[in-house]
Design brief:
By secondary structure, the chain is α/β, with parallel strands linked by helices. The protein has nine helices and eleven strands. It has a nine-stranded parallel beta sheet.
Length: 266
């Protein structure tokens, strides 16, 4: 059966507790950390873009440091998502996608838009936000993924509007927030957020078979059993590029988890 690529990674690559052997070899120069991480993993979610903008040269440097086939996903600016009226985010969205992210070229993955847990579903305003998301920038196609963290989004109307827009709803395995696993885009974006640093590989060993199977099912175009879905009907089955990120509070064990899942799927 045809299967789309499965890309597995972590959030960022600059984190002091990863140095000295926890992830990065002892003595590795900080300038070499991205080069190392991008060869140990297959994707990285860039969180710094949520807080500030970067120059095109920075994105070019990131792309040059990573090997062929590696993918960066970039987190959308807080100035786009952390506002009462999303319909007014047009200028901020344009500024974000126009800052130079396309300098990543073929290594540019989806743009990840994360909303605060207090943000509730308002149908007209969220539709307005989806309408603001550009399909292209500088001639390069853009893909968008949205993570919502309020229970009011678990309704057919939200799933339907995302599916119509071709925007992926982020599935988050979270100990705190409700999750929506419905497939709405032509790719899958999953965040495994329930990990703990007390576990050597972030998640308990017994849970890895579940995520191994889920990754395979997503990549083949199906939807895994046992996840929370809003709609009963499945979208058309087609291979979907699948992104899975281990991102939890402590972060220390996230690289070990990502590498273990990569090895299991190899």
């Amino acid at each position: 059966m045809t299967q789309a690529p499965i890309r597995i990674g972590i959030g960022g690559w600059t984190f002091e507790p990863w140095r000295g052997g926890a992830f990065y070899p002892a003595g590795l120069s900080q300038k070499k950390e991205l080069e190392y991480a991008s060869r140990a993993l297959t994707a990285i979610e860039v969180n710094g873009t949520y807080y500030s903008s970067f120059k095109p040269q920075t994105f070019e440097n990131w792309a040059a440091a990573a090997p062929e086939g590696f993918v960066f996903t970039v987190k959308g600016s807080r100035f786009c998502t952390n506002r009462k009226v999303l319909a007014e985010a047009g200028e901020s969205v344009s500024r974000f996608v126009g800052q130079g992210i396309t300098a990543l070229g073929e290594k540019l993955g989806p743009i990840f838009w994360q909303f605060m847990a207090t943000k509730k579903f308002e149908q007209d305003d969220f539709q307005a936000f989806l309408d603001l998301l550009p399909a292209k920038q500088d001639g390069i196609a853009l893909r968008h993924a949205i993570q919502v963290r309020h229970e009011s989004f678990a309704v057919p109307e939200f799933v339907a509007m995302c599916r119509k827009a071709g925007v992926a709803i982020v599935y988050a395995d979270s100990p705190t927030y409700p999750a929506i696993a419905d497939l709405t885009g032509d790719f899958v974006y999953a965040r495994l957020e329930a990990g703990e640093d007390d576990n050597p590989r972030c998640y308990p060993e017994s849970e890895f078979p579940r995520w191994i199977e889920a990754a395979k099912v997503w990549a083949r175009g199906g939807r895994p059993e046992g996840l929370p879905y809003v709609l009963d009907e499945e979208p058309p089955a087609k291979p979907r590029e699948t992104f899975i990120f281990f991102i939890h509070g402590g972060k220390v064990r996230a690289p070990a988890a990502a590498q273990a899942l990569i090895a299991a799927l190899a």
